[in-house]
Amino acid sequence: MLTDFAKIETFLTVVREKSFSKASAKLGISQPAVTQQMKYIEDYLDVQIVDRKKNGIRLTKEGQMLYSIGQKIERCVNNAEKELLKIMNKDVTFVFGASFIIGNYILPRFLNNLKENINNDVSINVSVSHKAIEDLLDKKIDMALVENYIPDDNIIYREWMEDEIVIFSNQPLPAKAKAKDLLSYRWVCRNPDSHTRLIFKESLDKANYPDCDTFNVTSEVTSATTIVQTVLHSNKDDVPTVSVVSRNAIESLLKAGALYESRIGNQKMVRKLYIAHRKDRKHDAFIENVVDYLLKIK
Hints:
Number of strands: 12
Distance between the termini: 31 Å
Radius of gyration: 22 Å
Number of domains: 3
Organism: Malaciobacter halophilus
Strand content: 25-35%
CATH superfamily of the largest domain: Periplasmic binding protein-like II
Domain HTH lysR-type: 3-60
Keywords: DNA-binding, Transcription, Transcription regulation
Oligomer: single chain
CATH class of the largest domain: Alpha Beta
Number of helices: 12
Order of helices and strands: HHHEEHEHHEHEEEHEHEHEHEEH
GO molecular function: DNA-binding transcription factor activity; transcription cis-regulatory region binding
Structural class: alpha/beta
CATH topology of the largest domain: D-Maltodextrin-Binding Protein, domain 2
Family: Belongs to the LysR transcriptional regulatory family.
Shape: globular
């Protein structure tokens, strides 16, 4: 069993996530597979290592001992992988496919450190999530970073980080917008097929607010960059012009006081971002190294 680090990795992830289902999402494997691997460990050791509770899991005494051993093995494996990568270093460019928000606003923050970490040049193809996944399946890119989970048996998805969507304007807004506030604004809306617009509509529904189709919509825009610039340069002496966008896209403008943010009452509009790679590269050292790096910086 100690020669099969995948099972140890599953155990460590279950402990850290305190959940079989969360470990499943983190590892990119099914929950039954997580359960099966945990059972294998318990059968192999002939002891119970975790107690499953309604609010998570609890390690048994033997489970605590295994966790300590597993951490030591993990450190050894990570150090060995770094040494192997030095030997395997290839004169190639690692290509990412990324959705607009990730490719334009999130990934560039870490790009230089990532290049140093994998000892290779990095390139980013920015497009919509569906296009990134298509390119991944067509082997045009090495990894996709997307905000849409697009099921495919040939793709492994790993949950990465959360992305908050906010209402914003170039005029001060209430921190918690009421329905009447939203109805009074001029809106630059996302296109009807936008994932961001779908999340916005769902959040309005949960808060029992009017549907955004009833708002005072002045235009519909596809590009997040165009939306930000349209709102940024709107008339400050008139009714506020607002829209919704990832907070990552306007963080610097919020800090500079050029834009202001608001939320739907007490709700936060949050979506998951995903790391995706082809299943046939599951044990590729370069892929594993990049995934490990991205999971650490989230």
